Amino acid sequence: MNSRLADIFSGSSGSRLVTYVTGGDPDETRSAEVLRALGRAGADVLEVGVPFSDPLADGPVIQRASERALRAGTSLQSVLDLIEQVRPDVEAGIVVFTYANPVLRLGVEAFTARAAAVGVDGVLVLDLPVEEAGPFRQQVVAAGLDQIFLLSPTTTNERLAAAAELGRGFLYGISRLGVTGARSEVGGGARQLVERIRRVSSLPVAVGFGVSHPDHVREIGQWADGVVVGSALVDVIAREADSGRLIPAVEEYIKWLRSGTDVKGAPSDHE
Amino acid sequence: MTMIETPPAGRRDPDERGYFGDYGGSFVPETLVAPVEELKRAYLDARGDAGFCAEFERLLQHYVGRPTPLYEARRWAQVLGGARIFLKREDLAHTGAHKINNALGQALLALRMGKRRVVAETGAGQHGVATATACALLGLTCEVYMGADDVARQAPNVVRMRLLGAKVTPVDSGSRTLKDAINEAMRDWVTNIEDTYYLLGSVLGPHPYPLMVREFQSVIGAEARTQIQTQAAGPPTVVVACVGGGSNALGIFDGFVDQEDVRLVGVEAGGDGLVAGRHAARFATGTVGVLQGTRSVILQDQHGNIEPTHSVSAGLDYAAVGPEHAWLRDLGRAEYTSVTDEEALSAFQQLAKLEGILPALESSHALAHIARIAPAMPADAVVLANLSGRGDKDVAILQAQGLGDDTTAEPVS
Fold first, then answer.
1. Where are the domains of chain A?
2. A54, B183: Cβ pair inside 8 Å?
3. Which CATH architecture has domain A16-261?
4. Are B103 and B134 within 8 A, CB to CB?
5. Which of A52, A54, A62 to mutate to test the interface with B (most CBs of B within 10 A)?
6. Are B201 and B103 spatial neighbours (Cβ–Cβ below 8 Å)?
7. How far is A264 from chain B (nearest CA, A)?
8. What global pTM score does this model have?
C-alpha cells in the first residue's frame, strides 16, 4: 500500500512541516494561491480545513476563518474542487480536515471517492473518535486514503493503541487541552504524549495546537516527526487578505517558521 | 447498530455506546473523549447509589417543592369543548421551570466528581438560572454562556443569574443564540476539564447526557402517572409536551412510555411557518446529521451546515432534537407535530385569561396543540400536558407582540 504521507515522513531525518488553512478563506481564488504558496515555501503536508457553521473544537481565529469561507460560498464540495485545482502544482501531501456533519451530508462514499479522485491523501474528522469511526474508516481505506486520528494528552494508552491500529499516514498529537489557537509556549504534555505514542505505534507523529514561532518548530522537531502550524498561519491570512501582499506574507511566514527546522530534505521537498 | 423493536418497560437505556436505535452516540473532539467517559462512569455509579438518590430526592421535595401539582383546567376545557385537560405544573417548581430538576441532579454529580466549577449554556435563560441556583446552593463556581442576542432579549434572566452569583458570558459568534452558547460552553470544558463540569440543559450532546438528563427529569412523569390515576381514575388518552431539545417531554413521556395505549405527542416550534430559517420543526423538514456530539434529526442545508432557526420561544429555537425523540418517532411510539408562533400566542392568552396561569411560550406550544385536538375528543377523554415553565420571563416578548395592552382586554373563547 503506497501512501504519499508515509513517503513524506520516511527518508531523511528532521521534522516535517504541516500547515493548516481553512479552504476557501478568504475566497476560493486566494485560497488556491495560498495553498500553492505553502507548497512553494516548503510545507510538507497541507491540511485543508472544511468550514463548518459550528466549529466547536476551534478557537476564535479559525472560527472567523470558517465564517469568512462560508460567506464566500465555500462547502465541502468546493474544498474538494479547490484541491483538484491546486493538486498539479503542489507536491506536498494533502489532508482534508473536517467536522463529521458535512461529510455525512455529502455521503461518506461520495466523499471518499471524490477525495481520492482529486488527489487527497488523508482525511481527519475532528469529531469522529475511534469509537465512532468504524464504518467511515472502511470507506476511507477502500478509497485508498489515509485516516488521520487526533490524539490528546487525555487519550488513554488503550485508545492510543486503537488509533495506532486504525490510523495511517501519520498520527496527530495535540500538544495541550483546549481549542485550536496560537500560544506563546507549547504545552509541556506534548512530549510525554509523543513518548506514549511511540510505545504503541511506529507511525510518524506530528504535533500541533499552539505553534506560532520558529522556536516551537525547533523544539517540537527534536522529538516529533512533524510540526503543525494552524491558527498562527490563518491569522497571517486574516491580516494580509486585503493588503495586496497576501501571498508573499504567507511564503515569508512559512520560511521564517522553517528557519526553526535544522534538517530539511524530505522527499517532497523541492528546494 | 441493533434496532430494538419496542422500548422495554422500566429503565430504557441506550446501548453501551449511547445509541437509541440509530441515534445518539458520542461525536466529540478527542480531548473530550476521556472526560465524557469519566462522566459516564460517574453517572452510572451515582444513579445506583442510594445515598446520592436520597439526597437528590430530598432536594426535589424540600427545595424544589415537589411533587408539583397536577391541575385540571376546567374552564379552558369547557371553552374548548371535548376532552378533560390536566396540566402538570412544572411552572410551580422553584425557579419557575422543570430545568431545576436536571440542574440539581447534575450539580450533585459535579460535587461527587470533585469538580468545583460548572459551566452551562442557556437560551432563554431558564436553564442558566436553574444552574446558577443549584451552584449557589451547593457552593460551586458557575459560568453561563449565552448568545449575545439572547442576552439582549432575556435581560431579566441575565440579572437573576448574576444575582445568584454566576458569571454570564455573552457569545458573539455564529448566530449568537443557544447553539453558539453550547459551542462556547464545550470550548470552555475542553480547555478546563481538570476542574470543570459541563452542565448541559437538555437531552442533547454526547452520551451519557441524553440518558442522564432524561432520568433526572423522569420525576415529572412518575408523579404525573400517580396523580392522573388518582384524579382521572385511569391513564390519560394522550400526553402532550413541547420539544426543543426535548427534556421536559421525555421527562413526562417516561411515566407513560410503557403504557402503549397512551398516545405521546411532542410539539415543535413551527415559527412563522415551515420555511427554511423561519422555524425549528426538526421532524417536519430535518434530516439525520451530527451536531454538538450527537447523531439525530437536525435542520441543515445541502452542505451540512446548520440552518438558522426561528421561534417566538427562545427555548425551542434550536436546530437539533434529542436523539431519543428521533428513536421514539421511528418506533412509532411517539408522534411529533408543530404549531406556529401565532397559535402558541393564542393558547397563551387562553390559559392566562381562563385559568389565571401565565405559561412559558415554550409550554404554550403544547397548549396550542391541545386547543387543536381537544374539541374533537369525547368528554371522557383525558389530555395531559406538561406545563413546563411559567411565562413571567416572556412578558417583554409578549408586549412586543402587542399583547398586554389595554386594547387586548376582550374576553376570549
1. 16-261
2. yes
3. Alpha-Beta Barrel (3.20)
4. yes
5. A54
6. yes
7. 31
8. 0.94
